[in-house]
C-alpha cells in the first residue's frame, strides 16, 4: 500500500501539481501586466488600447527628422 501510494504521488500527483503551479504563475504574470497597463492608462478600460504608431511602409508613417 505504501509503495503504491508513493508511486502515485511521484508519478501523478506531483506532475499535476507542478503543471498547476506553472499555470498559476503564468496567470499571475498576466494579471500583473494588466494591472500595470491599467495603472498607466486607465482610460483604456473605456476607450480601449491606443493604436500603435504606423511603421515604415504603413499609411500615415512619418519618419522622425534628426
Q: What's the helical proportion of residues?
A: 55-70%
> N-to-C terminal Cα separation, in Å?
76 Å
Order of helices and strands: HH
Major beta sheet summary: none
Give an overview in words.
The chain is an all-alpha fold and 66 residues long. It has a domain at 2-47. The protein has two helices and no strands.
Write out key terms for the chains shown.
66 residues; mainly alpha
Q: Secondary structure elements and their pairing?
A:
Elements: H1 2-40, H2 44-47
Short description:
The protein has 66 residues and is mainly alpha-helical. The chain has helices at residues 2-40, 44-47.
Amino acid at each position: 500500500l505504501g509503495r503504491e501510494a508513493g508511486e502515485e504521488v511521484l508519478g501523478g500527483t506531483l506532475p499535476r501539481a507542478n503543471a498547476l503551479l506553472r499555470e498559476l504563475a503564468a496567470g499571475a504574470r498576466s494579471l500583473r501586466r494588466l494591472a500595470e497597463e491599467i495603472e498607466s492608462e486607465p482610460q483604456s478600460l473605456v476607450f480601449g488600447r491606443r493604436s500603435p504608431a504606423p511603421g515604415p511602409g504603413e499609411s500615415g508613417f512619418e519618419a522622425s527628422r534628426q
